[in-house]
Amino acid sequence: MSLGSKTMGPDIEATSGEHAFLMNETVHSFAWKGVSVTVKDHETKKPKTILENASGHVNPGELMVLMGPSGSGKTTLLNVLAHRDSAASAEMEGDILVNGQKVGLEIFRHISSYVEQEDVLVGALTVEETLYFGAQLSLPSSIPKNERLERISTLLHAFGIQNQAKTLIGTPIRKGISGGQKRRVSVASQLITCPKILFLDEPTSGLDSTASFE
């Protein structure tokens, strides 16, 4: 498994204008040190090491990619770093740090979001409705309706899906938006809360090269 990083352009980390709500001004570093994960083997019932002494560091505005063959522990590491419930049954050693310090689970989930490998979307909703209900369920009541609608509009345009706003997500028996557009909706729906750290599990899985690039 290998790591790669890239600094995102100013269109993502805009300091003013309609993208200002996405600006990260609180998380200055995200790091993990000596992370090892052990699980119980289903066949032998003995401890099995999935990850051993993994370390990494991400700076603000960077996009880091975990690469490696199947079974190398990419998803396991991602779940551990994101404090996912799916990693609760595993034994983990090491430190996960935000701004050089450990933070509680409630705080971490407040500043981060996770995009599943499979799109978990309601096919009977339109693209715009999906973001709207995401905002209603995730945002605190202190954020007024007009600001919520502004965030939705901003994300629709930022992801280039404003023309599909009134289009249904779609179901196996009712055509909707494309697979690539569904991935954009999935990511946009997680950005509605302005997370400072965003985890994505195989975001281009199942997409062709054109859709992946977009």
TrEMBL record:
One of its GO terms (molecular function) is ATP hydrolysis activity. Keywords: Membrane, Transmembrane, Transmembrane helix, Transport. GO terms for cellular component: membrane. Pfam families: ABC_tran. InterPro entries: ABC_transporter-like_ATP-bd, ABC_transporter-like_CS, ABCG_transporters, P-loop_NTPase. Gene3D superfamilies: P-loop containing nucleotide triphosphate hydrolases. It is a multi-pass membrane protein. It is found in: Membrane. Coiled coil: none annotated. It comes from the Eukaryota. Residues 51-205 form the ABC transporter domain. This is ABC transporter domain-containing protein. It comes from Emergomyces africanus.
